[in-house]
Design a protein that fits this description.
The protein has helices at residues 15-27, 40-47, 74-83, 101-109, 122-139; strands spanning 8-11, 34-37, 62-65, 92-96, 114-117. The chain is an alpha/beta fold. The protein has one domain: Response regulator (Rossmann fold, 3-Layer(aba) Sandwich), CATH 3.40.50.2300. The chain has a five-stranded parallel sheet with strand order 2-1-3-4-5, sandwiched between helices. The longest helix has 18 residues, at 122-139. The two termini are 17 Å apart.
């Protein structure tokens, strides 16, 4: 049985946050491939292998999903993922600056696996991402997905 490197999908419209997230994952020596979608519509293109993601292999092991994005926000993306039989088992971690209770509650109602508020302090943010990466991309055993 061949060991496949698990992919991580980051969905975030902030290039700075994406860069910090990738740096935190790299700093922890995670060998995972990291893919980036800049908004909700692009995330769905990635998951459905459309547009520039037409020839993209498989599904990610975990999705790190921001809430506040243009075109389609993270709550809408999560709703779509959980309503799609092919996608609904993918772990989705809301990684957001939103401290709004309604976002937290709605995320869990829709089936988010975790909700992490982006710390304002950069070192706290890096540490949080390292821990997330270790657990979801290495320790956690996701269900088999055909993609």
């Amino acid at each position: 049985m061949k060991t496949e490197i698990k992919r991580i999908l980051i969905v975030d419209d902030s290039p700075k946050d994406v860069e910090l997230t990738i740096a935190a994952l790299s700093e922890n020596n995670l060998a995972n491939e990291v893919d980036v979608a800049e908004d909700g519509e692009e995330a769905l293109d990635y998951l459905h292998k459309r547009g520039k993601f037409l020839n993209h292999p498989g599904y990610p092991a975990v999705i790190l999903l921001d809430i506040k994005m243009p075109k389609m926000n993270g709550i809408e993306v999560l709703r779509h993922i959980r309503n799609d039989p092919k996608l609904k088992l993918i772990p989705v971690i809301m990684v957001t600056s939103s401290r709004e209770e309604r976002d937290l509650v709605e995320s869990y109602k829709l089936g988010a696996n975790s909700y992490v508020v982006k710390p304002v302090d950069i070192s706290q943010f890096l540490e949080a991402i390292k821990i997330l990466g270790q657990f979801w991309a290495i320790v956690n055993q996701p269900p088999p997905l055909n993609g």
